[in-house]
Amino acid sequence: MPTTEIVGAWISIFLTLCIFSYLYDDNPIYKLVEHLFLGVSIGYSVVEAYFGAFKPNVINKLADGQLTPLVALVLVLMLFSKVIPRFSYLARIPIAFIVAAFAGVKLTGEANSNLMTQVAQSMPNLAAVYAEHGLWSWDADGAGLFSSLFLVAGLSACLLHFYFSAPHQRGMKVVSRFGVLVLMLSFGASFGYTVMGRISLCIGRVQEMLGLNRPIDEAEIIQPQLATLVSLVVIVGSLVVWRVQQSRQRGAEG
Amino acid sequence: MTLFEVLERFQTMDRRWVFLGMAISIVAPMLFPFNLGFKVDERVQSLYDTIETLPPGSTVLVSADFDPASLPELEPFFRANLEHLFRRDLKVVVLSLWESAPPVVKPLLRRVAERHDKAYGTDYVFLGFKTGKELAIKGIGENIFKTFPEDIEGTKITSLPIMQGFKQAKDFPLLVSVSAGFPGTKEYVLQIQGQYDLTMISACTAVSAPDYIPFYKAGQLRGLSGGMPGSAQYEKLVFPDGPLPGERLLATQAVNVLNLGHLYIIGLIILGNVAWLLTRPRAAAGGSA
Question: Is A106 in contact with B138 (Cβ distance < 8 A)?
Fold first, then answer.
């Protein structure tokens, strides 16, 4: 295994713990790594944008004698006119292109796949569903007549909750409340998935620190647990020094 | 100290105790592993079965749209998926719409391919990253040679044996989207799946899963693996006898930890609400005095 990979793994563990130090308090080590992360991210993006988009689509094509990229180049330069207030209006032209192109690309897909197909799915064939799954099927994640009817009722109630041309009184109030209940269930499910995602990310970092995310032979060479221990000692030591300095400063000021 | 005081103190305690509790509930089960077990749900089973129905020798298009941040959730799936595809003697064309994906994808692909003695350019290829997001997806639907003229090594893809006869997405019998967000599964479904009636499966992060489940229910996706549990279930199907020698099943070992993390959060939510409910009347009346 190359030494760079071993050093990289140790740096990765150290930086992870530096970021985690924020959980204790906002501190200089965290700030340092936060700035480092931003710098590296932006640097990486700029290099990728140059070699992945600008060079092949503009520079290489111009070098081949094609002139069409000049149009794109002029539009890009017009975007930068924002920095000169006198000519900032020029930026509206490329922005108009971007908005129009994006709207055109999005509209057909949204209308076809996200609207029509989903609307069609909200009108299930109840007889077919009952024939396939019965009232409720544990094997098919709860598919069945009950779920299909709940889908139709829940969807209708949610839509009626946002219908404001009729006062939400009597029957409408009950339907609207049911719609809110369905919305809450939906938000709860989404939030549950989000929590799961965040814990998963945390698990991923801990797996790295304990060397559990690598093949066994690699972990034996890198010694991630030792790296974690050394990093912890360095970071905790630095935090202690920082705290002592802070209290001394406060003492001198007070 | 009375129960009321304990509950009141619980509501105002330093949040760092919560973080410490979470750290313990994650680290402890990793150091002392246990197995609570889990079952494979219908969506992941369907994803697995879709691959199983492909005849050997077919070429699969894999869009690896993730980054280092989403590795814990998607790396186990991607790894198991490559293993599954190569084991079934399928050819694999990998591409990415995420700029930070190539440094992660390339070594993983090479490692699994080498284990199966697969030849680059003939059995598998990595086309690298392409900017353009949804426009790039449109390009993949219309003409891959134009969208990815070269692979990640700079070789013209028209000269690669694996790419012969595969000009656009619909030429592939299966599209696998490993998606950590935008652009990813949703954009593939919106831009080309419906238009070309592609057979498509997806593995996504937990955050995206609720958005993609309707696509599965509508038949736009033939299978869906959501987050770390989805990856663990897929690992269970691909590696029924446990990990390969020297390897680990990352999601399987993590999913038990995830269970404990969830129990910890559920416990805090219940405790917090009970504390609030029990202390509310006395607090409103002026506290414990």
Answer: no
